[in-house]
Amino acid sequence: MTRKELLARGRDYFHRFEDSRWMHEAERFLDDEGKIGRVLRYMPGMLRKKAFVPVVKDLILAYLYVSDVVKGQYKDFSRGKLLLLVALLAYVVSPFDFVPDWLPGAGLLDDAALVGYAAHLADKELQRYYRWNRQHRKGDFDVQIPAE
After folding, report:
1. How many domains does the chain have?
2. Is residue 148 over pLDDT 60?
3. For 73, which of 16, 68, 77, 112 could close a Cys bridge (C-beta 3.0–4.6 Å)?
4. What is the pLDDT of residues 48-102, one digit of tens each?
5. What is each CA distance from 32 to 46, 85, 96, 137, in whole angstroms?
């Protein structure tokens, strides 16, 4: 599936997503170091999934953004975009979402579609973060992706 097709599908999923428990729970994830810590620990393992190939850069950027905000390193963030991206990451690492991840062929497509669409919605915020990261870290975007 191409990035453009994922965006179109993501738009459809997003309407369900924004009214779902994921958006409502994002605030709780931020308030609970254990919950947000688990989400961030599971994320690198998701990056090697083939379904995420068209959106892997967006997923990495969203992961680094949330991680840097949670660690207190990136302070100039939009609370609304942060909540969107926290909800997105929690959704991606959960095997029980709109289309259960264990379903062959389709299980991760909803996740990838939402990643593409959420990155589209948070594009300006993520670009601002990207520029900040390049300036303050000299472009270090090292993410360790565990082997299968």
Report:
1. 1
2. no
3. 68
4. 888 888 888 899 999 999 999 999 999 999 999 999 999 999 988 887 766 666 6
5. 22, 16, 21, 27
Rounded to whole angstroms, how far apart are CA atoms 80 and 29?
14
What is the span of the domain harbouring residue 129?
3-137
Structural domain includes residue 130 = yes
Residue recorded with tokens 């729970």: 25
Residue found by looking up tokens 């688990």 in the block: 38
> Does a structural domain hold residue 145?
no
Question: Please, what sign has the CA dihedral across residues 34, 38, 70, 24?
Answer: negative
Element (H, E) at 18: helix 3-18
Distance CA 25, CA 120 (A): 21
Q: Cα dihedral angle (117, 66, 28, 21), rounded to 10 degrees?
A: 10
Domain membership flag for residue 148: no
